Amino acid sequence: MILHRAIAIDGPAASGKSTLSRLLSQRLNLIMVNSGAMYRAVTWKVLQRGIDPNDREAVVQALREMELECGVADLVSTIKVDGIDPGDELRSESVNSHVSAVSAVPEVRECLVSLQRDYLKLGDVVMEGRDIGSVVFPETPFKIYMDADPSVREARREVVGEVDSVAARDRADSGRATAPLKIAEGACVLDTSGHTIESGVEAAIEILRGQGFVMPASA
Ligand code: CDP
Ligand code: CDP
C-alpha cells in the first residue's frame, strides 16, 4: 500500500538527478532522498575497514556489522554509519571507483531498498537513483528517466573538479544482474543535454502534470 506519493528520478551519472530532485523538493515541498548516498555510505565503510569491495562475502559480512541510520533534515535525506556522517568523503575518488561493485551485491540492495521504502512513511518523496522507478517504487505513476550525452555528463563532473569515471560506472550500473539501470516501465525520458537547470525543471514539472501529479497551489 502506498502511504504517500513518490516521484522516482532515475538516470546515469551527472544526468542532473540531484539538481532536479533538490529543486522539485523545494518547489513541491517533498522529502528529497538521495539513494546514491546510501550506496556510497556502505562503500565508504567497507573501504574504511580495509575490506576488498570486490569480495562479496566480506562486503555482506561488513554490511551486517554496520549500523545505518537514515533520517531527514530540512526535507533532505541524511545517513550515518555507526554514528558518523561521512560528509564529503561520500564523493571521494575511492568511493566513486568502488561504489558500483558494492551496489551490485544483492544483499546490499535488499537492505537499502527496504530503508528507501521506509521514507514513504514520513511524507511525499522525490527519490533519485538507478532503480527507483523499476524496483523501489514500481507502482508509482510519477517516473522520470533523466539522460544527457556522455560528453556533456563527463564535462559536468570536470567542471566541479570531481575525479570520477562516469563511463565506467554507467557500464557497471547498466550491466549488473540485480536492478540494472534501465528506463522503468511508465517512465518519461528527459534529456537534459540542451537544457539549462531552470528549463529542465520546467520540463520535469510538465511531465509530472502529464502523469497526473497534482501540484500544490504554490507551484
Ligand atoms: O550522483 P551520481 O549519479 O554520480 O551517483 P549516485 O546517485 O550518488 O550513485 C552512486 C552509485 O550508487 C551509482 O553509480 C550506482 O552504482 C549506485 N546506485 C545504485 O546502484 N542504485 C541506486 N538507486 C542509486 C545509486
Ligand atoms: O545527480 P546526478 O549525478 O545525475 O547529476 P547532478 O549532480 O544533479 O548534476 C551534475 C552537474 O550538472 C551539476 O553540477 C549540475 O549543476 C549540472 N547540470 C547542468 O549543468 N545542467 C542541467 N540541466 C542539470 C545539471
TrEMBL record:
Localization in the cell: Cytoplasm
> What Gene3D superfamilies does the annotation carry?
P-loop containing nucleotide triphosphate hydrolases (3.40.50.300)
This protein's major location comes to cytoplasm
Q: Give the keywords, sorted.
A: ATP-binding, Cytoplasm, Kinase, Nucleotide-binding, Transferase
Q: Where is the Cytidylate kinase domain?
A: 7-208
Its top-level enzyme class, in one word, is transferase
Tell me if ATP-binding is a UniProt keyword of this record.
Answer: yes
Protein name, per record? Cytidylate kinase
UniProt-recorded Gene Ontology molecular function terms: kinase activity
Domain of life of the native organism = Bacteria
Write the signal peptide boundaries. Answer: none
Q: What is its EC number?
A: 2.7.4.25
Query: What SUPFAM superfamilies does its record include?
Result: P-loop containing nucleoside triphosphate hydrolases (SSF52540)
| Amino-acid positions noted as binding ATP in the UniProt annotation, renumbered to this chain | 11-19
Name the protein family.
Belongs to the cytidylate kinase family. Type 1 subfamily.
Catalysed reaction per UniProt?
dCMP + ATP = dCDP + ADP; CMP + ATP = CDP + ADP
